[in-house]
Amino acid sequence: MRTALLVPLFFLAGCAAEPVPYHSGNEIPRGPGLVTGPQGEFVLNAEDYREYQEWRARKREQESKP
Amino acid sequence: MRRTPFAAAVALAFLGFGTTAQAQGIEVRLSGQVNRALMHVDDGTQTDWFNVDNENSSTRFRFSAEGQAAPGWKGGILFEADFQSNPSDTVTFATRSVSAELTERHMDVFVASPYGTLRLGQGDGAANGASEVDLSGTTVAHYATSPDIGGAFQYRTGGVLSGTSIGASISSQDFESRYDRLLYQSPLFSGFMVEGSWGHKDTDIVELALRYSGKIGANGTLAGALGYSREDAAPGGTDDKVIGGSISWLHPSGFNLTFAHTVRDLPGRDGEFNYVKGGYKTGKHAFSVDYGMGDDQAAAGDEAKVYGVGYVFVPIAWAEIFALYKVHSLDRPGVSLEDITVFMVGSRVKF
After folding, report:
1. pTM of the model
2. Which among A18, A26, A33 has the least Cβ separation from residue B214?
3. B247 contacts in chain A (CB < 8 Å)
4. Which chain A residues are closer than 8 Å to B245 by Cβ?
5. What are the b/e assignments for B216-239, b being 16+ CB within 10 Å?
6. Burial grade of B259 (CB within 10 A; 0-12, 13-18, 19 or more)
7. In this model, does residue B163 exceed pLDDT 50?
């Protein structure tokens, strides 16, 4: 019965609403992290890898010079 | 050209894996948190302090990656595990120390498209959390699933353990949690989302949910969910069916209200849960009081109650300090049971 009461509340709310994402407080919080800084997560991508490869290639080249 | 992605390799090496994969357009993300607390429990006969991991939001880390598969289509993975020593819902006077172990939370692959998201693997069932929607800002201290803090402690009668724990008597009956499943999540329609999942633990599970989250003009934010779950019975048993939901309203002033209700089919009776929470949050502070009732859950005729006070302070964006005081009681016909009082103070730090 109480569950049924929740249904119209939902739809009434939806009529005039602007959607906003819900984030549970029981999950890892959004926002900055102690180590990860303002982004809140380490983000690594293919560009990082390409730069790493180029750096390694330059290092190898320098080390191979007499 | 096939390349070994440095990003993915570093991320997977962090988890103890090695890998090679196509890296083009893929982003790898790492995040996590540590959530520890001191908990004091008094069951009317015995009292003690415990150094616990806060089960309201356990110590965990997350690794995710996604990349574009086609215009408008993305694919990826989510890996999340928790690592808790002395979980706050597991310790007792007899077992004050529980060794940490890696426990799966999410281990799934997904594809997201304009038609919705499909997830395959270990993760949330469609209705997981549908009885726990809460905008109070104090869920790290207390929320509908009150047994997450001190849930393993048993009520005493005449100084003797009764065999009935807090967790057995006042569960939020939050559906089927996480399991190996196939989950569909619809796109958002005016803040509404429909979810459905099918999977299994020992037996098959089906779950459905309707979720909502949106701003209601000058009246603040409203979020809620309705859920249904059915876990097939083992031979000779009763299907485990739960229906219910929760709704939470946050006024722009900071005042907030939350309500949750679930009913579970139990042999010969319905186990019922009701919960109400009122709070206020402003700036770095959030404060709330709550009251929960569990009827006929552990045994027919049982009336379990909890009332509590919670406070959360956010001194810096990546850290919270929280405190909780709550009292659990259980009325059982013909038996006199002692109340259990719990106090907890701790901190969650996102890294």
Report:
1. 0.88
2. A18
3. 6, 9-10
4. 3, 6
5. beeebbbbbbbbbbbbeeeeeeee
6. buried
7. yes
